[in-house]
Amino acid sequence: MLSPMKHAGPARDNNNPDEPFVPDLSEGAETGVYLALLELIDEGLIITGDERIIDANSAACRLLERDYRQIAGRPLTELFVDEQAFLEARARVLIQGEMRGTLQIALPDGSPRTFRFVAAARLRPGIHALILSPEHPTDTPAGPSDTAPVAQADSVWPRLAAALAQAVIVIDERNRISAANAAALDTLGMTRSELIGHNADHCLDIHWPAPGAPPVARISPRSNPQALDARVLAGPRDGWHLLLLPPPRMNLTGGTASADPRPPRGLQHPRIESTRLDLHFQPLVNVRSGAIHAGEALLRWHHPRLGLIPFRDFAGAARDDGRLPELGGWALRAACRAANSWPLTQGRAPTVTVNIAIEQIMHGALVQQVITALSESGIAPKRLELDLDEAVLAVPDDNISATLSSLASLGVRLAIDDFGHGLNSMPRLRRYPIQALKLAPELVSGVGKDDDSNALVEAIVCMAAPLGLKVLARGVENEAQQSFLLALGCGLQQGPLFGAPMADVEFARFLSGQLFC
Description:
The protein is of the alpha+beta class. It is built from 17 helices and 21 strands. Residues 260-515 form the EAL domain. InterPro entries: Biofilm_reg_signaling, EAL_dom, EAL_sf, PAS, PAS-like_dom_sf, PAS_fold.
């Protein structure tokens, strides 16, 4: 049932016969759940919004007799013989929530073909999954009362869990643990018999996030009081949940990286002091003109024993201590001060981009932090771009909306960083005043080598254009990627090919004599 996956990179060695395919998805957990694993199932799988198709796997392309580019990004109505058939199917599956039945789909020549389906409507608001398989010609035609079972598809989500290297737990609508992969069992220190099939409350302590809070639960086994954070995603149908446990990360006490439950707060790492923080900057280039578009501020910590370490390696520690809003505010002020010293060319200076965590948006008085940073530094608001965590698109929160609207009214630019990790994202971009998308490095790494990566980048560029969004690529490593991205319509690029992150003084020297856009 499992087939090699094109998005997620090479598989790791695995001696567990129950999980024969365990790809390395330590980067980008949601990519593994919602995107990279589309190719792991033989059924035709379509991820769609209310009106437009977001993605499809190779099996769906074969069943529908279409090329990937004729499906992804196209209006959902194009799959049906006419608009009335589309409206009826949408009402049954996306509105009424019919989970099993048959649908008549139009082949490219216009002729109808009947497919069995299993639907997971509303994976998240406005995001749905359809699993298609051929209907025998003698079977009953499609109709609202048709509930033909597709038993094979019922095991899709447990199979996806088993294939992930990211530790994942699937909990069904009865609060029963439907699936947990080997990585989750290792992380929790539990066996399959202790976990799978049991009521979650009988074997785990789970503190679910409050309404409007970031989608993070606190979880620990009943037999072990030490807890860890888990990202909460909607499951395949109403009432189901996926818990993504944290991947291995640096142990800031100086030991080896581990995904084991964390030691008590205060014993794991020294306090992160602002006097030990620093910023490095990496250029973002318009490859058509060679001009510098922006410098991205990257936070660094001078650890007393480990030396200079990047933000990704101490973000978890900062989050544990509740200090992300504070550290983010420091980075924002320091980045704006540095940008004020950058040289001008023909009256122009590069934009400065600063990464903003969702905690900083929801709990960090971000608008006032931005006003203060702009006032202290003297730079114009249009020179500041805030790169937002893609999680803001998954949290329908009035405070987030008000905050981002206030920032946009100041003239600050807003972008979604590491775009491509969540299939919920594209339909929700209209919710906030976003102006740009930055493709995730994991997605960029496949460009020029993998047809699916090429097609996905092109689909994102095509869908972003009508929304007035610029698409930028992060993690560009070689000229082949640069050329492919440019051919796909992505001319703003950043990565090792254009320069490694530099200390602020070095970056200012790098900008001397450059053209800016």
